[in-house]
Protein 1
Amino acid sequence: MLNHSSRLSAHHTASPQLAHEDIRRYSRQLMLDCIDHDGQLNLARSHAVIVGLGGLGSLTARYLAGAGVGNITLIDGDTVDISNLQRQISYNEMHLGELKAKSLYNELRKVNSQLNIKFRSVFADSNNLPTLISSAGCVLDCTDNVTIRKQINLTTFRASIPLFIAAASGLTWQALNLPQNSANCGCYECLVSHVAVREDCVSQGILGPVVGMAACHQATQALLFLAQGFNANIKWGHYVNAHAGLGTLQSFKLPPSSSCEVCQ
């Protein structure tokens, strides 16, 4: 069976067209000017790497698969625990004890079996990250601690791969889009050197829907980029901090830090 990308490329290469099945599947988003026919083709050709498959990553991956991102790589070495089920809606009691990456892979295959989805049941670190993200069009950081985020930031910056970060704790969620090739905005290392970033649901607790809000924002930003590239109407280098209970959202532009060891 041809995979999703193959079915698209089977048409005349000078003027690729969506298959009738794809037009039916993606009809609602094809109506959007920010996606349309060409954007959908771009999504099918894209490769997104998702690091961390908890409440953020599992839901973000579901949205990317549903939207037709042709190549998705899932990375996480953890297993499903009963405490995850409160917020990690891609898993259920049947998945307890299973590797998250493999379980999510199996669930996403049920959404669209034509996509090229791969998984790696490993914890990302400074040693394996360069290989894990080497062919990515963008990376989505859905991890839950500052140390690994710093390593992802450094690796994507060196590879000039756009990075979409999201996090949630308590009743707040945060997000940051980094082009990783611009002198006009800082990087995650710049952020944590100036802001006390406390994005840890283990120590601070978390309400399930708050994670979903962060995942929806992150998935939206990544999909618009994958569909339109840097022409997409999204903000780069702006740190977003939202309070779900109060319904407030604040953001500020993240300037490069002159003392940053990563981007300067």
Protein 2
Amino acid sequence: MASRSIKSLLVAGFSILALCFSQGVLAQQSEAEGVSKPAESKEEALDPGKLLMEHILDAHEFHFISYKSADGQEHEIAIPLPVIVYTKEKGFSVFMSSRFEHGHTTYNGFGLFEGKIKAVDDAGKELEDVKVYDLSMTRNVVQMILALAVLVWIMTSVASKYKKNGANSAPTGMQNAMEPVITFIRDEVGKSNLGHKYEKYMPYLLTVFFFILINNLFGLIPGSANVTGNIAFTAVLGVISFVVIMFSTNGHFWGHIFNPPVPGFVKPILVVVEFLSIFTKPFALIIRLFANMVAGHMIITCLIMLIFIFGGMAAAAGYGFSPLSLAFTIFIYMIEVLVAFIQAFIFTNLTAVFIGQAFEGEHHDEHAHATH
């Protein structure tokens, strides 16, 4: 199928950058208790919108590549993930996503339809009146847990070296790589925005920065999930930042919100604007990170799809455009590596700015009155 071929070529393009593939497993043939879905007689037409969504949205497996054997049978190289679903009729059901054979079969009364697990009857037809609660370990969840494990491992190894050798000895290894980054965040984000209170917020700011950075970089590995391109992920980070900002406010901050120092006829309008700004700040954090990380992946996928679009017009056009498309793909990929660092820094820096605005208002006002 065209969509499978594009995904395979996308992986091949990424591989030029020498990123390592994870070990895949071949999908197993359907077992006796599985119900096969009808096979498609014709090759699917290229659907760019559907392909983009498949690349961006969550899934129940880590898919790497598809290929056809000599006998014409299609095979998938993927890592299946645990499926955990609940229905009132059956209770909890736990099995591996390989039972679905990438959506070609059903299993135990469930089927995979466009990435969503739904209840089906014995013939494989969807049961719309049965509500399925999907609690599965999807690729976004698994990758986020792996990123968290890597973050904990890096920070504990660095901390253990400081504990063992002290802060005055020359850093080595991982400690040497992390120290300049931590110092940069401390000086350029913490001290410059939070002043004398920066130490109180450094654990949170460093955690946010490295957690976003690691997830951004993991998302560039072929076959992995674009976790930071998931609005739910960025929304949780934004809500946490919102809570931290709110707990950092003082009476003077709320006084400026509900009683701004402006003429009376402007005050009602400005109160509404200032009050809405409380919520637009974390919303800006959420959308900025989400949009930037999704955009890069969409551009890369679109560049690969152009090969097949031109190939649909003429085979020579498809082959002729391939080198140009892959060259642009690699270029955008390198830009995405830079964007991974930039977006982690911007999210952390804006969070520090908003926290600083929450508790530094009184200081700025006192300075303004002293000037007058």
